[in-house]
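Possible regression after last week's pipeline update?

I re-ran a chain I had predicted before the update to compare outputs. Posting the input and the new output here so someone can diff against the archived version. Not blocking, just want to make sure nothing changed silently.
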Amino acid sequence: EELASKTTDKDYVLIYYSGHGKRVNNNSYWIPVNASLNSRSSWVGIKEIENFYVASGNNLPDIKAHHLAVVADSCYFAVKGKGISSFSDIDRNLHFKTLLKNRARIVMSSGSAQRVEDHKQGSKHSTFANVILTELKNNTKYMRLREIAERVEVALSGKQIANYEPMSDWQHQGGDLVFVVPKQ
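New output (post-update):
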């Protein structure tokens, strides 16, 4: 609600959740650090979260950001979307400008309706989080969230199925989050 009150159609928003998730009666939940594992009243329903991203009629969604990505590293994070094909890589600069110009609504998760790794042995983070952090640290110019998702998918092969999905039901229009290294 606070994020919805602060964002405009000119903002770029990345929501990153790392934590526990649970599935009960075909409903998926995030379980915040201050929530009780024994009381669903303190859990956050994925459908409730989704309500902030979905527009109704001609109205913008509650979170009005031009680009919005939800990156979830938790068990049982399952949302449904309709895939949209991406742009071809003709001229990288033009390509990235197009991605930034077009509205983006994306979900990237460490899994879908299944258990996922909590942490990689010898690390404070999961493999999912480690790959994201490594890719962002190694970025020398600019990088799409889709590129990071592809590297995550390879790193998790055989363990769990990561997900990157443009959400057309949330008014995705072919954009992507682009991480740009600031000029120094």
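Follow-up from reviewer: compared with the archived run. Confidence is low (pLDDT under 50) at residues 81-90. Marking as no regression found.
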